[in-house]
Structures are given as structure tokens and as C-alpha cells.
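User: I want to check something. If I give you two sequences, will you return the structure for each one separately, not as a complex?

Assistant: Yes, each is folded on its own. Here is the first sequence with its structure:
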Amino acid sequence: MDEKDLRLFQLLLINNRITHREMAHELGISVPSVHRRLQNLIDQGIVTKFTANISSGYLRAVPVKIMGVSESLSINGHMKEPTERSFTEKVYQFGSNALVITLLLKGLDDLGPSVERIRENLEIRELSVVIPSRATSANIPVHHKYTGTKPLTLLDYRIIAALHDDARKPLNEVADDLDVSVKTVRRHFDTMVEQGSIELSTNWMPERTSGIYSLVHIELRPGENKGRYIARLNDRFGPRILVGLESSNLPDLVVLSCWSPTMDKHMEMVEDISNDEETVLTFSRIIRSTWLFKTWRNKLLQERIAGPWH
């Protein structure tokens, strides 16, 4: 894996329907080279799926990250039947049983009970709750903010469902599946993208890369502009910083998803960040395992295409 692979992956995070030709233009390489690189990432099990779903913004759902160290001796067993299964989207496991659990809640009322059940069942004494406000890759939002006002139609839901497990599926094939015109499908799809009511995601297993994948937690001095800070680090380290996450409830926290070719390069990056004058505290954790789950949102999509809904 090299920096062109990292940049390719960033392009897919921002828009998982980007064409090979568009990626080739962005990367300055040939279309066959893009195809080969992407296929290698898929064959190695690094990129696992391109998905589509009803956006969390449209549903007014609340994404949350729970961070803590588990004292349980059977993390793998818990992952077979995870606590808060209907809410759990992803779990990262690090060394010393440190966990980052990504939840998608139906509302903030679910937060307290979910946190307590996770604390009890995974035996986490001290945990942190992070409510993300913005995630960017190469200074571009990973997901469109929901700006629509009209409810999705039955056809909208059917289009999302047709793309659910293969978001790169050509729209003419979606039209054939749904027995409607390509023009109609494209109009509905483009509107959903523009309004942010469809969420396009790229699933991947970072621990399968050839290098070191880590989450770097940074506490900034109070009042620092997190967006500008992440942009400066992107300029410094390029695509090695895959994603920058800002928090709404912890105003001075930034979490970076980072890749380095070697442990030495990883430590150099963390030390470099630690020496920034804007930085109060920096620590990193290296990912060992990833688990991905389907949530209540997947079930809701199936219910919506069956109709009627409320």
C-alpha cells in the first residue's frame, strides 16, 4: 500500500461512485492502473463493500463513538452478539483491549441506557462518549449534510435498496431492476445526493493493510479552530491522514485515522503532532481488529420498501 492507494481510498470515502476515469485524473495515473489498484484492495480484503443507506441526517439519528478499555476476557465472544446490537455499526479493537464502538442511535434519549449497557456487558470502568460533528477526508466532508425538506418516496427507498450492497452498481442496471427509466432513476438519485438523504459509504478492514493503521487522539488548546488544524496536518502528511473527526460535545478533541508504512514512521508522525504548539495532549492506538454490523437502519430500509410507512 502506498500514497496513491491511500488517495484512491480517500476518493472512495468521499464518493464511492466515483468513476475509474475520474480517479485516474485525480491521481495522475492511467485508468487500467486505477482498476488494478482498486481490485488489489478488494482482493486483499482491505475494501470489503460499497454501501448505500438512508442517511443518518434524514432519519435525525445520532452517531456516537464510545471509547474505553474492556476488562472482559472474551471480546470475540461479545462481538458474535454485541451489546446494543441494533445500534452498533462498527467496533475497533486495539492493544490492551481498548475499544472504539460506533453506535447509530435513534435519538439522544437512547444514549444513557446504551452507554450503561455497554459499560456493564463489556466491563468498561471508564469510558468516553464522543458525538461527532464533522468527518472529513482531504478536507472534504465524508458525507453530505442533510438539507432536504421533502420526505423520500417509495421509489427513492427502492433505489437505495437496489444500491444497498453495491453502491457502485450502474444506474441503468438499477433502472432495469426497478422497471423504470434510467432518466427517472438518475433524477431521483441525484436529488437524494444533493439533499444528503442517501448515505454512500465504503467499508474496509484497516488492519489488513501492509502498514500501521492507528487512531490518533489530539486535545487542542481551548479555542483552536479544529477544521483549520486538521487542514494543516493534511498539508503536512498528505493522504496518510485518511480521516479527521471533530466532536460536538468535546470541543477541543480531534481524532485522526492515520496510516504509516512502518512503526518508526508512525511514531515520527505522532511525535511531530505532539510538538505542535496548538497541541495539549496526543496519544495513538493501533488497530488490531474490526467488526462491522447491520443496525436498525438496515431493517428500517426493508420496511420502507415494503410500505406503507409513517
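And separately, the second sequence with its own structure:
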Amino acid sequence: MVYDVTIIGGGPAGLYAAFQAGLYGLKAQLLEASPTLGGKVVTYSERVIHDIGGQPSISGHQLIQNLQEQAQLYPLPIRTATLVTDVSYDATAAIYNVQTAETTYQTKALVLAIGGGMVRHKTWPLLAEQTYTNVSYVPQNPAAYREQSVLLVGPGYNLMALAPHLIATAKAVHWIVAKRPFATEAEEQDFLTTYPQIDYQVQPILSYQQANGQLTAVTLANQQTVTVDTVVASFGYRRSLDTHTDWQLTPDQLATPLVQPIGQQVGAKIGVSLIANAFQEGTVAMATIAQQLHPTEKAPMVTTHNQDFDRINEAYWTVE
């Protein structure tokens, strides 16, 4: 199969570009190197974003969920854990060959939504490479922890924001850090005074217990044992800056309307870095590619009058 366009990167820019590809009737796919979609937003998924037009307040988690749902209004493949290792151009066939560890895809055009590179969470050193089903590095909505004993591990500022919101839903909230995350003792004391329900301790975790694939308890340096249902760990993240400069593409093969960089490309531009900018760039990129591939076809109708959305619109206005 030869795709009209392959979108490389599954952050906000890539996901919205995928929706636009469907809107323009392009045969598209999206490739994301990480196991999860969202790009850098997954590192602050529980934080609230306020600078997206029409969305005065939305969490990073909800934004990515919405963008994924929007992209999948059209039947395009979204492939996670798919690292693009190389891209080359076949001038005879006018095709880009997109190479991954598993296979090579052929595509007529590219949208590079690689942003700052692949984002990976730093793992909890105590666990080494071991994984457990109840240990996560991406916080969920507080409702997901209802009536659970939640252990927050690490000094991440994400946990500082998450912990107070768990009080209303979790059975117990334990925040254990090896080093104080607060800038001053006064800030720490203010936090403890405001949220006395949180079991906050500055104690190294010496060991842990596990059963049936889950982490069940931890033992602190003071010999206290904390029994848990769920663990959220936050130790920062690493960013891999491997970009298209490593691919077998010449500058001329990149500088074409059929290769569209969007979003926050490393070293590509300096300016205001807003998710809203990436949405506009994704729209322009797909309009440009569609015009190059299908110059005689009309631009799609706006979504309010587009027949692609008749079924959704009918369901939206149906009163039960």
C-alpha cells in the first residue's frame, strides 16, 4: 500500500494533522515512537491548559484523549511504539520510503510532527527494569484512584499538583520523597498545613514487596511499611533528539511542499510555542499536500455542513 501522507509524531500537532488528513480525503497513517500518544503533554497530563482557543480549561490528559477521538473519526491507522529509523526518497517512483524496525512504509508525502523528539519517562531506580501493572509514570484523573491507597514516589512537581486532588477520592495518599521538592521550608510547611490528610515523608524507600504482578507495599528507611493499591512515580523524563537530520534525505528532498514540518521542531524555528499554533500548522500542511496530490479536487466543506459528520450531528442533537 502507498499512503498519500505519513504523519511522524503523535503529539497534539500530529494528532490534529491526522484529523485534517481524513477531512481532506487523504489516505494517511500516523507513526509514534513512544508507546503512548501525546508527545510532551504526557509529562504534564494532569496539569490544566488554558491557552487553547475555545477550551478555557482542559487537562493535558483530556486534550490528548479528545484529539485521539477526533483523529479516529476517520479510519486511519495510528501506530504507537513505531520508531522511524530512516526515510529515503525514490525519485523514480516519487515515493518516500519510511523505515521502522518492523517494516518499510511507502508514502507520497510526509508531515514531520516530531517536536522535541521522543519523550520517555525516567523509571523508578528501585525497580530497575521490572514493571508492575499498578505502577504508572503518567498520572490519571483523580477519579481513577477512588477508594485506593495511593503511593506517590519521587520529587516531581506533577505529584505536588496531583496529591491535593486525590484527597477527595483516594482512601489514603502517601507521598514519599528522598529529597525535599519544595524550594523553601516555608513552602513545605504551608503545604503540610493546608493538606494534613496527605502522608508526606522525606524518607528513602529501601525495598518493596510484590505479589501477582503488582507492587503491594514499600519499606522506608525508618522501617515503616506502607501498604498500597496504586503507585504513581515521577522522576522526570528524557528526550531523544534524533530527528530527520539522520535520515537519507537531501535538503532538496526535504524542501518540498510534500514534506511539511509542523509543531515545535528542534532548531527549526524560534517563536511562541503554543499547542494552538500546531493546530493551524497541521491544517495548512494537509491543505498544501492535498493540493499537490489532487490539484483538481475541491477543498472539503466546513465540518458544520460536511456530510462526513451527518451521523455524529444527528446523534448530537437527538433528545432522549
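Because they were folded independently, the notes below concern the second chain alone. Residues 275-293 form the longest helix (19 residues). The chain has two domains: 2-120+237-317, 123-233.
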